[in-house]
Amino acid sequence: MLFKILVILHTLGATVWTGGHLVLAVTVLPQALKTRDPDRIHQFEEHFEGFGLAALLLQVITGLWLTWIYFPGLQNFWAFDSFLSRYIGIKLGLLLATLALAVHARFLIIPKLTKETLNSLAYHIVGVTTLAVLFVILGAGIRLGGLT
Hints:
Blueprint (H helix, E strand, L loop, with lengths): L1 H34 L2 H33 L12 H27 L8 H27 L4
C-alpha cells in the first residue's frame, strides 16, 4: 500500500512540475519573447514558484524512498546492471542538471532580468522543461519495465 501511495504522490509531483514548465515554455515564454516583456515571466513565477518547488521536493522525497524500496540499502543499485538502476541513475543526473539550471537562473539571471537578458532565461526555461519531460519519460519507463 505504501508503495502505491508513493508512486501516486511522485506522479502528482511530476504532473505539477512538468505541466507547469510546459505551460511556461509553450504559452508564457513565447508571449514574453514576442513582446520583450520579462514581467510575464515574473508574474508566472510569482504564482508557480512555491507550488512548483514543493512539487519538485515531493518528487525528490518520494523518488528516493521508492529507490530505497527497489534497492534496500542501495544494495546492487550502484552496479547499474538493470534497466531500473540505470533509469534511476539517469533521473538522479537529470535532477542535478535541473538544480544547477534552477540555481543559476534564480540567483544570476532572474534578479537582473530585463528585455535584454530575456533570451538567457529562455534557454534555461527550455532546458528545465526538456529535463522535466525526460523525467516523465524515464518514470514511465520504470513503471513499464523499460522503454526498449
